[in-house]
Specification:
This protein is mainly β. It has strands at about 1-5, 10-15, 20-30, 35-45, 50-55, 60, 65-75, 80-85, 90-95, 110-115, 120-125, 130-135, 150-155, 160-165, 170-175, 180-185. The strands form three sheets. A six-stranded antiparallel beta sheet has the order 1-6-2-3-4-5, with no helix packed on it. Strands 9-8-7-10-11 form a five-stranded antiparallel beta sheet, with no helix packed on it. Strands 14-13-12-15-16 form a five-stranded antiparallel beta sheet, with no helix packed on it.
Length: about 190
């Protein structure tokens, strides 16, 4: 058993019998009252956000979570089939754990998945991906005075905003957290 001082943003705890990941965690000491921790947590099964106040020094159960890097192979029935590169075992990870970033994944990429036992809890794609632009409107020459963006379709089918100078068949780097254009790849 750990206490509330051991928690931080990203910790996974067992709260009311459910696994929750802490998304916001603040220590408060209001006036004449005792100090407490205000926690905002995401239920990993339902996705609901829960808030709770913990007393300073209160015992909490931190879940034992193992993180593995897996290679994404293909999608099958709403699951991403991933391979553990050490054991060559195939693992089925629900597509919804990746959120909207699943549209930026292509075969062969390494993803990070958190497990409790054999059950996948959370998953995150690589922070940056390099994808080829399959279609975009041609940019107008000399129109670089403003930070104007245009839509581009990448090889996975996702549509991202890119600067006007990006053309079809170029490889670009994209941040998967906010789908922003980072730069061209040489």
């Amino acid at each position: 058993m750990a206490d509330t001082g051991d928690l931080k943003v990203g910790s996974i705890i067992r709260f009311n019998g459910e696994l929750c990941q802490i998304t916001d965690y603040i220590h408060r000491t209001p006036g004449n009252l005792r100090a407490f921790y205000q926690a905002k947590m995401k239920n990993l099964k339902t996705g609901r956000i829960v808030e709770n106040r913990f007393r300073a020094g209160e015992g909490v159960e931190i879940a034992r979570v193992d993180f593995k890097e897996l290679q994404y192979i293909y999608i099958e029935n709403g699951n991403l089939v991933c391979m553990d590169n050490e054991t060559f075992e195939q693992v089925y990870v629900p597509e919804n754990l990746f959120g909207n970033a699943v549209k930026l994944l292509k075969e062969g990429m390494i993803v990070k998945v958190a497990f409790e036992g054999d059950q996948p809890l959370t998953a995150e794609p690589p922070t940056f991906v390099e994808l080829k632009v399959t279609y975009t409107e041609p940019g107008v020459k000399g129109d670089t005075a403003t930070n104007t963006l245009k839509h581009a379709t990448v090889e996975t089918g996702a549509i991202v905003n890119v600067p006007l100078f990006v053309n079809t068949d170029e490889v670009i780097k994209i941040d998967t957290r906010d789908w922003s254009y980072v730069g061209k790849v040489k």
